[in-house]
Each structure stands twice: as structure tokens, then as C-alpha cells.
Amino acid sequence: MKPTLLVLAAGMGSRYGGLKQMDAFGPSGETILDYSIYDAIQSGFGKVVFVIRESFSEAFRAFFSGKFDDQIEVEYVFQDITDVPEGSSYTPEREKPWGTAHAVWVARHVINEPFAVINADDFYGRGAYREIKSYFDQGHTNYSLVGYQLSNTLSDHGTVNRGVCQVNETGQLKTVVETLKIGFEADGTISYPTEDGSANLAAETVVSMNFWGFTPDYFSYAEDYFKGFLSKRGHEPKSEFFIPLLIEDLIQKDEKSVEVLSCDEQWFGVTYQEDKPIVVEKIMDLLRREVYPKKLWG
């Protein structure tokens, strides 16, 4: 059974100034997402599921329809505030969906096989897809994560959020903590704000770029955790159910282990409009090295 690629594409791109999922970066109008789907197909994935919002569903489908439908099965699901476990409640002041772990959970009705999770606006490199596909092929029942070096994932134009990882001596994830507003200081050090001021992180710190490998039991674990999350924090208008919160809980309870997969690929992505020229140049370099054809589809 071929694995599925689950693409988290429901973000509104507030810091970027628009839907970066559909912004062109390649010479023939290719998005970052086009390159991700191409890499997944080349690596042996059999289906792609897009998690989007109903508000831009029509535009999103029209944009991607016909590009790769003949090469990989395509599904769409909506991330909506109202999609919560039966019996759960939350504040009526809530305006945004519940975060990345919720975005994965909403695909529970269309995925019955091992699946990888990525962000729509991140470029991970083909080696990352091959690593996680190989892990699936070995029949593991535990989860996996492609880890990246922190210094290779930052923006020169503002702060970013990253899942900061600790890995044990056997290559398994010990902890992953969603850390907000990480950025470069004037002297080149990397820091993030804390209640007491700020804390530094080493350049080689392993971070999650939200490239996870899961088995279908994720959905039942997520539902149980989400119920508790809503009971405790559903009254908060801006609380978020992040994937690392669930993973941390599963590791601490010894219910799942997570293998951190090494990958030599360079990650890049767009958080701000100022990131776009850098990403365009990186893609052009890949084209010059013939990693991708100049016209990706057709």
C-alpha cells in the first residue's frame, strides 16, 4: 500500500500578505507546493490530501486541478472550527481553526494508510520524502519525523515558530516543544523570548519543520487528546492544538516512539514577502542543477 501525503494548506498567510499556497516561485508559475507534490510522486506516494478552508476551496481546486491528477490520487478536506469531537464545546468568540494537530485530525475520514504530513509553504527536498517513504516501507508502527538544523530554517526578515527537539542516543525523539518567535540577534546568535527575557538556541539544534510520519491510529489518539484540550482550553479564543503537544503526551505516556530521520536536504520556505526572492533563487539553482525540469507538469 502506497503512503499518503497530507498537506496542511488551510493557513491564510497573514504575515505573508496572501495565500502563499498559490503564489508562483518557479519559471512556469510553479508553487512551492507543486515541487512538494512532484517530489512525493517521484518518491512513491500514492495519494495527496489537501487540508484547506472552505472559504477558498473553489479557487484552490481550480488552481491545482488537472496538474497532477493523472499521476496521484487527490482528495480535499476542510479544516473548520466546528469540526470537534462529539460532546465538546468551545467559546463562541473563536475565529480561527484549532492548529496543526486539528488540521491532521480533520482528514480522518479519507486516510487509512501510513501518511506523511507537510506544510504547503515549505520546501523540504526530495531526500526527505524518500527517507520517510523508506521508513513506511519497513512496516514500522511507530511514528517518524524528518529533523532539520535550526540555522538552516530561519528567516532574515522576522521571527519564526519551530518545534525544538531533543533526540536520544538511539535516534528517537525525547521531547518536542513548540517554540515561538525564534530569530537572529544582531550579533548572529539565535534566541527566543521567555517570561524572564530571552533564551539562546544553538545553530545545530534539531527542529521539526512539521514533516511527520504517522500511522492511522494517529486519529484516535488525537481525538482523545483534543477532547481533553477543549475541556481545559476551549474557552480561550486563541488556544492552539499543535502536533507537538500530542506527540509530547504520547512519548511521556510511552504509547508511541518517534524516530528522527536524518536528511541532508536544505529546507526553505516563505514566512514574509521578503523571503520570496530568496526562494525563487534557490529554486532556480535546483533547475540549473537539473534536479527538476523547467516546466514541472505537462
| pLDDT < 50 stretches | none
In total, how many beta strands?
13
**How far is it from the N-terminal to the C-terminal residue, by CA?**
27 Å
Q: Structural class from helices and strands?
A: alpha/beta
Order of helices and strands: EHEHEHEEHEEEEEEHHEEH
Q: What is the gyration radius calculated from CA atoms?
A: 19 Å
Specify the overall morphology.
globular
Query: Beta fraction of the residues?
Result: 25-35%
Largest sheet: 11 strands, mixed
Mean pLDDT: 92
| Share of residues in helices | 25-40%
Number of helices: 7
What does this molecule look like?
There is one protein chain. The protein has helices spanning 32-43, 57-64, 100-105, 126-137, 218-233, 243-252, 276-288; strands at 4-8, 47-52, 73-78, 115-119, 122-123, 143-149, 160-167, 173-184, 190-194, 197-201, 206-214, 258-261, 268-269. Helix 1 runs parallel beside helix 4 (126-137). Helices cover 26% and strands 26% of the residues.
Note the topology:
Elements: E1 4-8, H1 32-43, E2 47-52, H2 57-64, E3 73-78, H3 100-105, E4 115-119, E5 122-123, H4 126-137, E6 143-149, E7 160-167, E8 173-184, E9 190-194, E10 197-201, E11 206-214, H5 218-233, H6 243-252, E12 258-261, E13 268-269, H7 276-288
Parallel strand pairs: 1-2, 1-4, 2-3, 6-12
Antiparallel strand pairs: 4-11, 5-13, 6-11, 7-8, 7-11, 8-9, 9-10
Helix pairs in contact: 1-4
